[in-house]
Amino acid sequence: MSLMEKVNGKALSLGVPLSVHLDITYRCNERCEHCYLEHSGENELSSSEIRAFLKQFADAGALFLTVSGGEPLLRRDCFEVIEFARELNFNVKLKTNAVLIRETQARRLREAGVEQVQVSIYSHKPEVHDAITKLPGSLSRSLEGIRLMRAAGLKVTLANVLMKSNARDFAGVQALADRTGSQYTLDPTITPMLNGDTAILALNLPPEELRAVFRDERLVGRVDEFCAPPAPIDDSIREGLPCSAGHTSCYVSPWGEVYPCVQFPLLCGNLREKPFSEIWSRSERLREVRAIRAKHLSTCSSCSHLGSCTRCPGLAFMEGDMRGPSSADCEKSFLRTGIVTAGMLAGSTALPFAPHHGELVQINLPGA
Amino acid sequence: MKNCYIARSRSVAARQLGEEMVIMSAQDSTLFNLNPVATLIWLGADGHTPLETIVQQRICSTFEVDLEEALQDAQQFVSELAAHGVLLLGEAPISDANAEMAKLP
What we know:
The structure holds two protein chains of two kinds.
Chain A: H1 3-14, E1 19-23, H2 47-59, E2 64-68, H3 78-87, E3 91-95, H4 103-112, E4 116-120, H5 126-133, H6 138-151, E5 156-161, H7 170-180, E6 183-187, H8 207-214, H9 217-220, H10 223-226, H11 235-238, E7 249-252, E8 257-259, E9 269-270, H12 276-282, H13 284-291, H14 313-318, H15 327-337, H16 342-345
Parallel strand pairs in A: 1-2, 1-7, 2-3, 3-4, 4-5, 5-6
Antiparallel strand pairs in A: 7-8, 8-9
Chain B: E1 5-8, E2 12-17, E3 20-25, E4 31-34, H1 36-44, E5 46-50, H2 51-60, H3 67-83, E6 87-90, H4 96-101
Antiparallel strand pairs in B: 1-5, 1-6, 2-3, 3-4
């Protein structure tokens, strides 16, 4: 067991929200075609509200804070928020498109003690990246921001969302990561908009291409391990938690709404109405989320992928049942291993493409 | 290590989980989980109280342990954390200004 797993286990046993993801605005200077947010800036939390809520998160035991958006740097008080979070001894991770980062901003983030900055980069080709962000010149500006942050001593991760329009550019983004001394992370899943609109799912990689991604060692490491059939299921898996959402982590919107996760739009309370500790400990919805063990999942509990699937309860919730399968994850498990999931057999998830067999051979059994 | 003073570095993130302190260094992303005894030393690391006093007041008064033995262990512990930039060590009291300077590269 790693130290991080041990700390998570301790937080779970104590009921501590170890990680909080705070979006300080939904406003953005980019309009990425796959974004799940609407970019309204109305009624955002004020600086003093954010400071008060950060104090509440710290008092509840939260250590890891992700500051994100929208584009968080569009808020004039973004640096004050981060600096105050550091005064409260948070480990701060910032998600930004880096378009607004200049030398002064990079240095200020470093001096504040931001642990890591994540920047979404879609392609090494300006025409592809800028077409996705709909902001001309954005790749060039983001890369300059990354360069300045690296020069200031910040750790930077390039987050590469893969979709139809940039499917073949991951090697170029990896090369950018290498060249700038950044980490690289891949995300091949487009999620529905938080308002339930699923139109953007059409941007997802076609199954054949996702299958190829899962068999590319530059992306997944050891393909034989990544695509291995699921291991046998035991009681520890059946008694396991679907994920940390609502257990040791939560999401807070720019309006103070508390959710189990940014990808799990089950409203559990609003910080403008109740203190965080009260929402965290007394929300009936959070209790419902916390009561779910793998063995309680309506279809997935009988699935051979139960122990290895990346099933997202938030995506399942958006499909209508937080205890049900998430079709995106059924698809991933199938494309990874070639083994059909229980969700597919139950018909709740369509097969991503028709399975095919080789040439049929008739076998004549003796005595038949 | 006579007249040893210790101060918590401001470059770390830290939170107490039960009786244990979880610390993450922003410098190298190393995660530390201090046991209850180490946590007491960490909490006493204000830059102004000598290590010997911290050990006497916080450790020896709580646990049945000899001061000399506890101090020896504490000195080894603070040296290890100082090597990771998590604690600042000094032979004189450490001011806030010094702790602030320590977070810069």
